Amino acid sequence: MTCMLEQYQPTRILFLDIETVPKKPSFEDLNEQEQAFWEKKSSRLRNEEETAADVYPRAGIYAEFGKIICISVGLILNKGEQYGFRIKSFYGDDEKVLLSEFADMLRKFAEKDQTYLCAHNGKEFDFPYIIRRLLVNGLPVPELLNIPGKKPWELSFLDTLELWKFGDYKHYTSLNLLAYLFEIPTPKDDIEGSMVGSVYHDEGDLERIVRYCEKDTLTVAQLFLRYRGEALIDQSNVEYA
Predict the structure, then answer these.
(1) Start-to-end CA span in the chain (Å)
(2) Which DSSP letter does residue 111 get?
(3) Angstrom distance (rounded) from CA 49 to CA 32
(4) pTM of the predicted protein model
(5) Could you tell me the CA-to-CA distances from 195 to 26, 57, 71, 202, 224 in Å, in that order?
(6) Cβ distance 52 to 35 under 8 Å?
(7) Quick one: 14 exposed, middle or buried, by C-beta within 10 A (0-12, 13-18, 19+)?
């Protein structure tokens, strides 16, 4: 029997998730030029009663106004009759340092044949966000992320959201909902994406965010295996680098 996605070797896929926050704790911390830029950008996000300051917590989803504080990556391990999973996180307050370390790892990973990157909504968010922040920080873009000049079928990107659309491009399904549908342990048992900014800027609890990011990364890998009709990775086979 032919399974979905059989052309992809699971052990050649790097699964990832990123967590982003507004670069400054509040709108008032921006300089006048930055405030003006956010005023214009946020005009499409707010209703008549809201100000640019009110919606500033959403700034983290835009690479021009946010920064990456964590990238968690994971590899499926072939352990004979069952799969294992190894997770590593690059995180910290210094975005340039964590991006540099992530890029070095990505170059080493790409030395293998037929390697891919996979994230949920990765083509719309994670991958372009990482590329933009690499450029802003003056860092070279690793070949796996180097999009310009490549044809769509030459890209090494897999996206569990896009795979679920089956060509229905207006359809959006959250990772949390798909985890529920496929009976995968939920990654949203502590915090969710909308809380990351306040947990970082107000509570200073980066470790909590890292744990959340790692859970999402594992969930993406589990979802990919479900798409292939395969069993979930047992938590006892999850390793943390």
Answers:
(1) 36
(2) T
(3) 22
(4) 0.94
(5) 14, 9, 17, 10, 26
(6) yes
(7) buried
Residue ranges with strand state E in the chain: 13-22, 66-79, 82-91, 116-119, 157-159, 238-240
d(CA 224, CA 175): 11
State pLDDT tens for residues 21-59.
999 999 999 999 999 999 999 998 898 899 999 999 999
Lookup: tokens for 166: 């089956």
Of residues 170 and 155, more confidence is placed in 155
CA pair distance 227, 241, nearest whole angstrom: 26
In order of their start, the domains of the chain are 10-21+73-240 (3.30.420.10), 24-64 (no CATH)
Q: Give me the helices (H) in 52-110, please.
A: 95-109
